[in-house]
Amino acid sequence: MLNAHQLRLQQKNRLDSGGRIERDKPLSFLFADRRLMGYAGDTLASALLANGVDVVGRSFKYSRARGIMTAGVEEPNAILQTGATESTQTPNIKATEQSLYEGLVCRPVNGWPSVNTDVMSVLGRLGGALMSPGFYYKTFMWPKSQWETYEKFIRRAAGLGRSPTLPDADRYDHMHHHVDVMVVGAGPAGLMAALSAARQGARVLLADERSEAGGSLLFSRDSIEGKPAMEWVADVVTELDASDSVTRLARSTVTGYHDHNFLTISERRSDHLGDRAPAHMSRQRLHKVRAGSVVLATGAHERPLVFANNDLPGCMLASSVSHYIQRFAVVPGTQLVVMTSNDSAYQAAFDWVDAGRKLVAIVDTRRDPDGAVTQMARQRGMTLITGSALIEARGRHRVSGAVVSPINAAATFVTGELRLLPCDTIATSGGWSPVVHLSCHTGSRPVWSDEKLGFVPGSTSEARFCAGAINGTLSLDQCLAEGVHAGSEAATAAHHLSSDRIMKIPASASGQEDVCAAMPVFLVPHTLPSSRAPKQFVDMQNDVTAAGIQMSTQEGFESIEHVKRYTALGFGTDQGKTGNVNGMAIVAHALGKTLAETGTTVFRPNYTPVSFGVVAGASTDLLFDPQRFTPMHAWHLQRGAVFENVGQWKRPLYFPQGDESMAQAIVREQLATRNGVGILDASTLGKIDIQGRDAREFLGRVYTNAWAKLAPGRCRYGLMCGEDGMIMDDGVTSCLAQNHFLMTTTTGGAAHVLSWLEIYQQTEWPELEVFFNSVTDHWATMSIAGPDSRNLLATLTDLDLSAESFGFMDWREATVAGIPARIFRISFTGDLSYEINVPAHYGLALWEALFEAGAAFGLTPYGTETMHVLRAEKGFIIVGQDTDGSMTPYDMNHGWAVANNKEFSFIGKRGMNRSDCLRTDRKQLVGLMTTDPSALLPEGAQAVRDPAEPIPMTMVGHVTSSYHSAFLGRRIAMAVIKDGLQRMGEKVYFPLAGGELVEAVICDPVFVDPQGIRQKA
Amino acid sequence: MFLIHCPYCAEHREEDEFHAVGQAHLPRPPDPDAMTDEQWGDYLYFRKNPRGEHRELWVHAAGCRKYFNVARNTQTYEIYATYKVGDTLDLGDDPQAGATGSALNRRSG
Ligand SMILES: [Zn+2]
């Protein structure tokens, strides 16, 4: 453990006093395997700067050394990988946003092999010629076959971190909010908006991305209502936190502003506490907010000035220099040059000097700045160089000097002699860009303001109000006033009208000061044109330079959206926070247009990177994709069933015995069923209870076949088509009573069929009185099939099972093993078969009772694979396997299930009678017998009539089902073949991908018992 | 993410609970068999794709399971009104005039 003295020594840039840090809580952390120290209250960035760490990463494309440039969410360079273990690896963490905690482990993402010596920098120094805009398109697209090689190289060289290879060990969750007023940002304007809305009676949610409220006041030396700014903030926060109607979230970034005032907030609940979240809490939480009205008080990001080598470590935003000094007691250097085009950067010079470090000069691009701050700088004896610019930084891994020169009034060229000022830090301010990102998310385009020198929010149809620096407002008094008004208007819009409670607007000390107008400067001139000057970076994260942007306009890109895509300006996680406006101004200048004319690209969600964990919340694994089990599932598990997924259902595929293979098991299951009795768990079949005066008429309209005469106690196969005449679903529907039916659907089609019935009843035929209820889960269904099924069932029921009193396609109510049941004499195997439905909770009991009684008959459980083979032996189709959405009932040779004489033009009738559907040479369902009885004909294999035809061959159809039939002792298949019904006995050929040719004969698809004797036994 | 007023539940609910079905007010022709292939094809497949006011059929799938009509703007995503199947709604020349477009109006709707 280091003592206090050693801690101080190590943190060479830390001041002895001041800042909002806890000096009695030292924290140690690892950066690139180096142990460093900081304090509670630090961000990772402030701690790195305190320790004098200059280089925190390598740039994306040119691999240049980069240091910390900002103090907030806009940071383009200090993007790190955090995580002490594999399962806590997190890429894309901005050091400026990450709070420091004991034991934090982080490393740069781009430094391959290390941040200080990087082989890629050789590429980078070769410069523009190799890495020009559109570089990836131009260089790596040809030859196409090499892309995979290039891609590996690029990804390794230019990644922004890596994904963990182990599952995330922490929990995440979601929370919903319904509030009157959502306030985004807890700076001076946001605090006032929240307070005035709350005092007016509104329920308020206030979110801010930082660990502390205050926004720009966190590093301001101003006072409000006679109190130091942060004391005033503390008082406001106390009142807000005491109010029952206000919820305040810290470390919570509003990442998306969606339609109808729906906002998403990513709250980092425990990222500041340690590598893992504490056991009792989630790591992050996604808040989903529906707000009556929204106040955007998102502030502004300072714009850097663009000059040569402006990416050298030591180049920072002026406000961030103040931020580090005031909030963290960290002075990020020893000798400072400030360059500014406006008044705000003077604060950095004052803070720097007050911290006891040397100010070399303030370089002001304006000729005659005369604001209060300029006068104060003069009074304090600071060196002021006006009408000039810092045109180039010098240095290798850190700034060592600044080249300063006079410039013309338009800041377009250098007018005088160059001077080299030695320094290690350069702080610049090119003005302020309102944070309009969220305002764009609902489709509103920002508007350029010449007066504010920035894009301000455009109009919207949402109940949205903006306050403070997002409007381009920079005076603190004005921001406070706009906050009060916006909060009040937002509360009023959300129906809290008690206007007598509108609060007084607080006043700040700086309110009366003179301000000198800012000057528009977006690219600092150099003695050389941008194309030949050292690189002038516009977008640090994406390594976009002024020369690159100019080149893209020379290459013909004129739309700002195209320039963005070609150069990558504003791409990625950066979203143009610091670089966009400068870049667009450079485009506008190159095209001879104004910024208002070229406009801006728009921003999309998310404002900052959002973890996959918080998006998923608790919805992972089974909570994301639930599984459905039948009532007999436990039995299947115990019997060692192998399952298949059918939608969300788990269905036994087969029941292996001993060390049987799947092929062996299904042969045994087939033969046991055909020769004795087998049992299938069919509970997953969709079941819809249909009742009402017009239920029968309704069935006649949605099914292709006739339903008028189906008597209670009878069942019928039904075929359902879409309006296009193509088969959609099928199943057996039983008449329970005159106006009461039970419809079954395919397992996968159940939900869709229910919606289908509902939409026709509600929107087309509301005059029909009919009601639908999904009862799939209410009933357990088991099908006993095979010649012994009657004998087995007879041991468990008193019902007369003789064919005379309980025939094929009848159903009866009875008790089976003492359990009330519905028994349907229907068959999907072509054998004597009974489908028994009992209330779901009796399912397992009846299943077990059947096995007890079935021991004497060798009752064999079979799975879906055997079910498929047995149905194919009978030529029964499976909708979705033998059909594909382009098959009419006639194509499937199911014309027998179409009742064209029905009075009502049923769904599908008109469609299946289109001229194209009546062609006789459509693909039609047939059976196939391979000439070689064991030849494997894969499903999907394409048929040709002439195997000698040169490629491309004429394809005439394809195999839809193909199995080995144990009962027939050979392979069987079903296929759709053009004109197949007229070609019985003809040969077709299947050239397979491996070069083999399979020959088959077209036949009737009913391979077993074409007369139907077995099922009617 | 829309906030949608279900005219049957008489409540605003989250879009999660609804499904969009497609263009509204497309009654099934009373005598399909009398239609030409082309007419039937138009009914089945041809839909408007306006930029601006549009009428759609939605269903409160995870709620009351009722289908209803939505008048909304495909550009701004404002919802002017929702109304029951079988009802009609005339928004006139200026849909905004009778609109429930802003969140505050939706709240009172
Ligand atoms: Zn509803």
Explain the overall architecture.
- The complex is a heterodimer of chains A (about 1000) and B (about 110).
- In chain A, strands 8, 9, 12, 13, 14, 15 and 28 form a seven-stranded mixed sheet that branches.
- Chain A starts with a helix and ends in a 14-residue tail after the last strand.
- With about 1000 residues, chain A is an alpha+beta fold.
- Chain A has six domains: about 5-155, Ubiquitin-like (UB roll) (Roll); about 170-300 and about 435-495, FAD/NAD(P)-binding domain; about 305-430 and about 520-525, FAD/NAD(P)-binding domain (3-Layer(bba) Sandwich), CATH 3.50.50.60; about 530-600, Orthogonal Bundle (Arc Repressor Mutant, subunit A); about 690-870, Gyrase A, domain 2 (2-Layer Sandwich); about 920-1010, Aminomethyltransferase beta-barrel domains (Elongation Factor Tu (Ef-tu), domain 3).
- Chain A contains 25 helices and 49 strands.
- Chain B has about 110 residues and is α+β, with helices and mostly antiparallel strands.
- Chain B has a single domain (about 1-105), classed as Folate-binding superfamily (Folate-binding fold, 2-Layer Sandwich), CATH 3.30.2270.
- Chain B has a four-stranded antiparallel sheet, with no helix packed on it.
- The radius of gyration of chain B is 15 Å and the shape is globular.
- The structure holds zinc ion.
- Zinc ion binds near residues 9, 60 and 64 of chain B.
In short:
The complex is a heterodimer of chains A (1017) and B (109). Chain A is α+β, with helices and mostly antiparallel strands and 1017 residues long.
